Amino acid sequence: MRYRTVGRSGLSVSEIGYGAWGIGESSWVGATEDESVRALHRAVDLGVNFIDTARGYGESERIVGRVVRERAGDEVRVATKVPPRNGVWPPPFGLDPADVYPGEHIRKALETSLRASGLDHFDVLQFHVWSDDWVGRGDWLETIAALKQEGKIGLFGVSINDHEPDNALALVRSGAVDSVQVIYNIFDQSPADALLPACEEHGVGVIVRVALDEGGLTGRITADSTFPEGDWRHRYFRDDRPAQVEQRVAAIVADLGIAPDEIAETALRFVLSSPAVSTVIPGMRTVRNVERNTALSDGRVLTADQLAVLAKHRWERNFYS
User: Fold this and answer.
1) DSSP label of 77
2) In this structure, is the dihedral angle defined by the CA atoms of residues 46, 50, 51 and 52, taken in order, positive or negative?
3) Parallel, antiparallel or unpaired: strands 3-5 and 153-159
4) Does the reported pTM lie above 0.90?
5) Most buried of the four, 78, 97, 182, 220, by CB within 10 Å?
6) Are strands 122-127 and 77-82 parallel, antiparallel or unpaired?
7) Is the peptide bond before 90 cis (omega within 30 degrees of 0)?
8) Are 202 and 289 spatial neighbours (Cβ–Cβ below 8 Å)?
9) Would you state the pLDDT for residue 27?
C-alpha cells in the first residue's frame, strides 16, 4: 500500500481508502455485518488506514468503530460526517448557515457519532453538505476550532454536493478547511478544471468518492441490470440509464484498447493519476473487492496518452436527481 498526505495537514493516509456507506445496511441491499467486518479487517491487513463513514449511513459508524477498536494496535484513521440540521440535501443557495450547521448541532452530532462508534475522536469531521456562501458566516468555524482544541477531531473537511465541485472554491481559498470530498471519475472530470488545482495551491487534501460511478464504471452495469426495491441504486439506474452506461463504458474500452474487465482498474488508476488526490474511497462490501482494489496501489498511473483519450469521455449528468 502506498500513502499520501492530506494536503498541508501532514496526516498520512492510504491512497486506497474504504468507503463505508454501503456497509451501513441502510441504502444498499445485500450487505451483512459479518461480511462487512471481514472486509474491513482484510482492508486493514492490506494497509488501508483510512475509513470514511457518516452519521447518516445507518449502522456504518458502529460497525467501523467496532473494527477500529478491535484493531487497536493499528493506526486507522476514521472520517465521519455531520448531517445538515434542516435535513435539506443539497442545500439551495441562500440558506443561513445558522439553520444548517449551527455550533450546537455540530457538537451534538459529533457526540452522537462518538457514542455510536465507541471512539474517543475522529481524525476528520466533515459537513455532509456545503454551500460556498457560508464562508465567513455563522459560528461553525469557531465550533470546529474548539473541537480541534478539545482533541475530539483532527481535521475539518466538507463533502461537496454531488457534481458541484466549484461550490467549494471559496472555502478552499479561505484557508478554513483541511480537506474536501468530491465526486471525481472518468465521467465527471470537472473537479480537474478548478477545484483540484486550487486544492494543490492551498494545501487542501482531496478525498475522492464515486470513482466507480456507483458501479457504472465496473463494467457490470448493462441494459438488463436491475436492483431490488429498497436499494437506492434502483432509482439511480432507473429507466434507460443502465443502457446509457453500458454504451459509454463500451466506448471507453474500445478507445483505450483494454479488456472489458479492466474498466474498474482503469477508473481507479484515473483518479490516482492526479497528484492532488489524497485518497480514493471505493465502497468495498466484500473481501474480494477489498483485495482487488487494494492491489492497485502499486505506483502505476495512467499515461498521458491514456488520459488524453479519457478526456474525450467526459459525461456530465446527475443520476442522483
Assistant:
1) E
2) negative
3) unpaired
4) yes
5) 182
6) parallel
7) yes
8) no
9) 78
Q: Are 208 and 179 in contact (CB under 8 A)?
A: no
Q: How many CA atoms lie within 13 A of 267 on its CB side?
A: 31
Q: What pLDDT is attached to residue 30?
A: 78
* Among 170, 185, 215, CA closest to 277: 185
DSSP state of 161: P
Q: Which amino acid is at 141?
A: L
CB 15 within 8 A of CB 280: yes
pLDDT, tens only, 288-312: 999 999 999 999 999 999 999 999 9
Torsions phi, psi for 238 (to 5 deg): -90, 170
CA distance 319 to 321: 5
**DSSP code per residue over 96-156:** -HHHHS-HHHHHHHHHHHHHHHT-S-EEEEEESS--GGGTT-SSHHHHHHHHHHTTSEEEE
Contacts (Cβ under 8 Å, ≥6 apart) of 107: 143, 147
